[in-house]
Specification:
Number of helices: 3
Strand content: under 5%
Largest sheet: none
Number of domains: 1
Order of helices and strands: HHH
Radius of gyration: 18 Å
Structural class: mainly alpha
Length: 80
């Protein structure tokens, strides 16, 4: 699993856990309700994942990663 996928899954997990814990703290909720709250919370990161222009996860992020890697390699060559 690459780093980008891990970051996306961590983002999904964070949103899910915070939403479920918040709903649980309110109390008087059933398991189905908690799962529904969690799924709704994951909708935000999912929308970011399918947006190709999103700077964190979209196609732009891939282009930025490539450019940053090129700059890092050039900087290493300069220092030598």
């Amino acid at each position: 699993m690459n780093k980008k996928t891990q970051e996306m899954l961590v983002s999904y997990g964070r949103h899910f856990i915070v939403a479920v814990m918040s709903a649980f703290a309110i109390g008087d909720m059933e398991i189905v309700d908690l799962l529904l709250v969690g799924l709704i919370a994951v909708a935000g990161p999912a929308i970011r994942a399918i947006n190709p222009k999103d700077p964190a996860f979209g196609a732009i992020a891939d282009a930025v990663d490539v450019e940053l890697n090129k700059l890092a390699k050039a900087d290493k060559k300069k220092k030598k």
